[in-house]
C-alpha cells in the first residue's frame, strides 16, 4: 500500500477557497476507472472546472485531513474519485492592489484573477513588480542574451524595450506574471 502525506486540514482548505474571487473556477480531476482511488495513486481521470460554491460543497463533504495523490503533491484528494488542483486555488486568491501611475496591469489570458503590476523604467534601468502590499524593484541588466531571466536579485534581458514588448504580449504575459509573483515571494494559500 502506498502511503499518503497529510497536506492540509479541511478548515485551512475551506479558508483558502473562501479567500478566492466569487467568480473563480477551479480545476478538478474526476476518476473514470471503476476501482479508482486517488488516495492510492493517480488513475485515469477527466479534468473539469467547477465554481467556488461547488468546490466549497465538495470540501465540506471531504475528510477532515486532506491528502495528496501519492507522487502528485499538487493534487488534493477530496474523495476516492475526486481531486482538486492546488494551483487553481492559489491562482485565484484576492490581492487588493492600488497601483500608482505608470504600472502596467498584467492579467493572465487564461485566468483573469492571476495578475501582477509591472513598471519598467528605461532611464533608471529598473523593473518594479507590485501586488497587494508587496512591491519590489530590480536592476535591469541589458544585453545579457536573455529575453528575461530573474537571477541574483536582478532582471537580465536583451533590452528594456524588448522586455516591455514581451511583458505586454498576450502570448507571453503569463510567464511574466509567474516571474513577478516569484520576485514578490507571494505566499501560496495551500
Structure in words:
The chain is built from 5 helices and 12 strands. The protein is an alpha+beta fold. It has 2 domains: 6-90, no CATH class; 104-184, no CATH class. A 6-stranded antiparallel beta sheet has the order 1-4-5-6-2-3. A 6-stranded mixed beta sheet has the order 7-8-9-10-12-11, covered by helices on one side. Strand 7 (104-107) and strand 8 form a beta hairpin. It is elongated. It starts with 5 loop residues before the first strand and ends in a 6-residue tail after the last helix. 24% of the residues are buried. The model has no long low-confidence stretch (mean pLDDT 94).
Features:
35% strand; 190 residues; six-stranded antiparallel β-sheet; 5 helices; elongated
Alpha carbon gap, first and last residue? 26 Å
Overall strand count: 12
Percentage of residues in helical conformation: 10-25%
Task: Note poorly predicted spans.
Answer: none
Query: Tell me, what's the shape?
Result: elongated
Biggest β-sheet: strands ordered side by side in the sheet: 1-4-5-6-2-3
What is Rg? 19 Å
Fraction of residues in β-strands: 25-35%
Tally the structural domains: 2
Overall mean confidence score, pLDDT: 94
Quick structural gist:
This protein is of the alpha+beta class and 190 residues long.
Amino acid at each position: 500500500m502506498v502511503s499518503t502525506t497529510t497536506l492540509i486540514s479541511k478548515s485551512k482548505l475551506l479558508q483558502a477557497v473562501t479567500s478566492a474571487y466569487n467568480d473563480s473556477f477551479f480545476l478538478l480531476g474526476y476518476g473514470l476507472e471503476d476501482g479508482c482511488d486517488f488516495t492510492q495513486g493517480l488513475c485515469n481521470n477527466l479534468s473539469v472546472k467547477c465554481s467556488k460554491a461547488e468546490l466549497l460543497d465538495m470540501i465540506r463533504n471531504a475528510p477532515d485531513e486532506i491528502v495528496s495523490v501519492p507522487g502528485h503533491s499538487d493534487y488534493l484528494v477530496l474523495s476516492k474519485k475526486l481531486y482538486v488542483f492546488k494551483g487553481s486555488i492559489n491562482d485565484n486568491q484576492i490581492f487588493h492592489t492600488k497601483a500608482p501611475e505608470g504600472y502596467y496591469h498584467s492579467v493572465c489570458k487564461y485566468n483573469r484573477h492571476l495578475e501582477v503590476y509591472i513598471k519598467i523604467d528605461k532611464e533608471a534601468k529598473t523593473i518594479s513588480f507590485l501586488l497587494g502590499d508587496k512591491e519590489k524593484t530590480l536592476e535591469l541588466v541589458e544585453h545579457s542574451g536573455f529575453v528575461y531571466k530573474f537571477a541574483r536579485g536582478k532582471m537580465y534581458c536583451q533590452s528594456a524595450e524588448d522586455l516591455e514588448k514581451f511583458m505586454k504580449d498576450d502570448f507571453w504575459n503569463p510567464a511574466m506574471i509567474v516571474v513577478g509573483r516569484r520576485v514578490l515571494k507571494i505566499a501560496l494559500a495551500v
